[in-house]
Amino acid sequence: MLGSGLIKGLAETARNFVGSFHDPARLPTVEYPEARLPLPENARNFPFLIYDGSDPEQGLRCVACKICEKECPPQCIYIEVARDATGRALKHPRVFDLDISVCMSCQICVEVCPFDAIRMDTVYEIATADRFQPLLLHKQDLAKPNAYYHQIHPAEAAATDTRLAADAKRLKARATPKPAPPAPARVDSTPSPRPPPQVPEPAPV
Ligand code: SF4
Ligand code: SF4
Known about the structure:
This protein is α+β, with helices and mostly antiparallel strands. It has a domain at 51-168: Alpha-Beta Plaits (2-Layer Sandwich). The protein contains six helices and six strands, in the order αβαββαββαβαα. Strands 4-1-6 form a three-stranded mixed beta sheet. A three-stranded antiparallel beta sheet has the order 2-3-5. Helix 5 (146-152) crosses helix 6 (154-175). The protein is elongated. It starts with a helix and ends in a 30-residue tail after the last helix. Bound molecules: iron/sulfur cluster (2 copies).
């Protein structure tokens, strides 16, 4: 019958509306922004940089290897390596910029980072009327503590910490000099004296 789908839909809405008076679970509307649905563990939008300890600058895990910059498909990461007074490159980014107006949330930067230094954030309330400056995030905006990572992706962060601890233990064991093996039992290798050459007896005359 023409319009039967519409009538069924309206009946279902009315049934849930009336039922919600005694069962609030039947009222699925969330009063955002006062109320929010919890995000799932794998939710993601744009990347952030992890730092250990309390110093967002010194504790950055990023060593400015630039692998993420090279692999990012839309090329929205820009990194400059920090240098000391002699111009020697330090394992630290002086500049780490991320243009989230271009980022497509593919997570490739996370997958290629060998140092577990970059992860996907879940912040989504970043709408702005200015399409340029507020959407260009700098190192200071991107740096967030490992505790924050544990808060938004607890299972993934715990697995990362376990792996990093195992790697550190393995490196430490490799760097610790091993005790010298016991000296082998001494074998007297002095050659035994040769017997004196046999001088033939002179033939009788
Ligand atoms: S985030 Fe990772 S891949 Fe990117 S520069 Fe830093 S250490 Fe290298
Ligand atoms: S999520 Fe994808 S697009 Fe965004 S910075 Fe990482 S690699 Fe680039």
